[in-house]
Design a protein that fits this description.
With 307 residues, the chain is α/β, with parallel strands linked by helices. It is 33% helix and 24% strand. The protein has one domain: Ribokinase (UDP-N-acetylmuramoyl-L-alanine:D-glutamate ligase, 3-Layer(aba) Sandwich), CATH 3.40.1190.
Length: 307
């Protein structure tokens, strides 16, 4: 599959975090002291990892997010800049603590995450440079639900500018804020996220409910069962690419970033989902979150022989 000539520009809005990742023999099932077999410190967060994915896959990525004015924030910015993500849309808030996570990963790639999001990270989105959406060649906006005000503001501005606006609904908060869902043109649910949003366990029924409720193009990622989506009321299914899973950390964020990039390049829904599913599958074959994100050349080589 040839890479489209248009590089694609994506604005990612939401969460940037510093992950402390511990490799463990098995995920903790009870309280007590547990011992890790490995450790690394990496940048994470849904929007931030999606932005890195866009850059790795040959797109132009901007990140709009809030950080503390602290050493953890410095390391987050340095990591993003090293990946080629534009960081001029990061707001550093004096006295606030940048978001931090403790991540445990077992040998099968499953993980457990504990995140701290400082209430001192001002939720206001009034400072966002939304004028760029209509004047800077932006092809898509992607927002997560860790910063609902920022995501809603950016997705509404994208809709007004005629730009696709993708909502990452991997994890739906309780209580639910409906505003981001109403602002999005595309919504990517995880299976648990869709069930929580609709209150329905059967995924096909839940997708129809979500589409009717939001008037957006909706899809649900189901891990090894692939991706299902609705287009013009018709159900479609993309089987998962068969891979040997090493680490699932960040796979959903990679899917979202690759999907947004494909839309920014003008690809149709089915093409965008195939592109995103392949990127996420390749990521799962490699350890680490951002370390495992494929490059543009690696993904093109992988997709060439694939149906």
């Amino acid at each position: 599959m040839a890479v489209p000539p248009c590089p694609g520009t994506v604005v990612c809005v939401g969460h940037a975090v510093l992950d402390h990742v511990f490799a463990v023999p098995s995920l903790p099932a009870a309280e007590g002291k547990h011992f890790a077999t490995g450790y690394r410190e990496v940048g994470g967060g849904p929007a931030a990892t999606a932005a890195v994915t866009v850059a790795r896959l040959g797109g132009q990525a901007r990140l709009w997010a809030r950080l503390g004015d602290d050493p953890a924030g410095d390391r987050i910015v340095e990591g993003l800049a090293a990946e080629g993500v534009a960081t001029d849309g990061l707001l550093r808030i004096p006295g606030a603590v940048s978001s931090l996570s403790a991540v445990t990963v077992d040998p099968g790639g499953e993980r457990m995450i504990v995140n701290y999001l400082d209430p001192g990270l001002d939720p206001s989105a009034d400072w966002l440079p939304i004028d760029l959406l209509g004047s800077d060649g932006v092809g898509c906006v992607l927002g997560d639900l860790r910063w609902p005000a920022g995501t809603t503001h950016a997705l509404a501005a994208a809709r007004a500018a005629g730009v696709p606006g993708v909502l990452d609904a991997d994890s739906v908060p309780d209580p639910l804020d409906p505003a981001p869902f109403q602002a999005a043109s595309h919504i990517l649910f995880s299976r648990p996220g869709l069930a929580q949003f609709t209150g329905q366990a059967e995924m096909a029924t839940a997708l129809h409910t979500a589409a009717h409720t939001t008037r957006a193009l909706v899809a649900v990622t189901e891990g090894g069962d692939g991706v299902r989506w609705l287009d013009a009321g018709r159900m479609h299914h993309r089987p998962a690419f068969p891979v040997s899973v090493v680490d699932t950390l960040g796979a959903g964020d990679v899917f979202h970033g690759a999907f947004a990039l494909a839309l920014a390049r003008g690809q149709a829904m089915a093409e965008a989902i195939r592109f995103a599913a392949a990127a996420a599958a390749l990521k799962c074959t490699r350890p680490g979150g951002r370390e495992g994100i494929p490059t543009q050349a690696e993904l093109a080589a992988y997709l060439d022989p694939q149906p």
